[in-house]
Design a protein that fits this description.
This protein starts with a helix and ends with a strand. Strands 1-2-3-4-5-6-7 form a 7-stranded antiparallel sheet. The chain is mostly beta strands and 132 residues long. It has one domain. Helix content is 10%, strand content 61%.
């Protein structure tokens, strides 16, 4: 519970996290095989809104010793479709598109406008890179 807030309190992110790992194989500090899912329930990103933004899932898999995932919304204020990658050295990339829903608050709509113009499907692209 609130693991994201512990890992990265400067992001102002908190969530209830459910992790379901179907399979995991390690060899000499390398991930040889990974399959599972992470559910982020009641996600709050205080830089965007102090309200719960919804619940989101990350389907995880391994490729060439790196962790990859597809990120989708379960329910919430925004529609998201993204991919993530995480290297063993801790470098990550989250790349995707987000769009408003009918129930998106005005505050969140304003924040989304800073991502730039919408494409023909009403989506705005985003990309986060960093190291944990």
């Amino acid at each position: 519970n609130d693991i994201l807030e512990i890992i990265a309190p400067f992001l102002g992110v908190s969530s209830e996290i459910d992790i379901n790992i179907k399979s995991l194989s390690l060899n000499n500090k390398n991930i040889n095989q990974l399959e599972g899912q992470i559910l982020l329930n009641n996600l709050v990103m205080k830089g965007i809104s102090n309200r719960v933004l919804g619940s989101y899932k990350i389907d995880l898999f391994e490729r060439n010793g790196e962790i990859y995932g597809s990120i989708d919304d379960v329910f919430g204020e925004v529609d998201i479709a993204a991919t993530m990658s995480l290297t063993l050295s801790g470098k990550y990339i989250i790349d995707g598109a987000v769009s408003e829903k009918q129930n998106t608050s005005n505050q969140v709509r304003t924040i989304l406008s800073f991502l730039g113009a919408e494409n023909e499907n009403g989506q705005r692209s985003f990309r986060f890179e960093g190291e944990i």
